[in-house]
From TrEMBL:
A Pfam family the protein falls into: Helitron_like_N
Name under which the protein is recorded: Helitron helicase-like domain-containing protein
Lineage of source species: Eukaryota, Metazoa, Spiralia, Gnathifera, Rotifera
Alphabetized InterPro entries for the sequence: Helitron_helicase-like
Helitron helicase-like domain boundaries: 24-148
Amino acid sequence: MLNRDYVNGLIHNGDAFTFLRCDRSSPAFWELKKKEVMAMIRQLGCPTLFLTLSAAETQWSELIIILTQVLENKVITLEEAESMSYEKKCNLIRNDPVTCVHYFEHRLKCLWEILSAPCGPFQGYELVDKYVRTESQVRGSPHVHVLLWLKNGPKYGENNPESIERCIEFIDKLISQFATS
């Protein structure tokens, strides 16, 4: 470390910060993740869909029931959870962010099962792979950004006018399926 040329070489090559690759807040970690995504794109092509999924804790009555039991040692009904004031729900959520994150992860896991099911919303387009980046909003609530690759999904801009029409039909089909679910 006393050799200035050696240290400058580490910094110049990006090797000085590799030990931080496991720290989610470090540039080295996100550089590694960027390389993973780029490798997926090289192997699988452009993703078919991009999703952003946010937690809606105040609207999840089951979570409110759990939080009331954990924080107040009180059992409430679904109706009581639904009629609870917004401020009370926010207070419960604020006081137990760990349970909220676990519940969000549980709902996300259930969503992946639905999206991967042969009779799910991507029927006819098998879910080949996904890349998920989890972030926390300012209030501490998690949300995820997702790239999805679907088998036989339409490709936009194949220098083919039919590709645009195929993309429009695909999007319309998904929007109408999700709107009716």
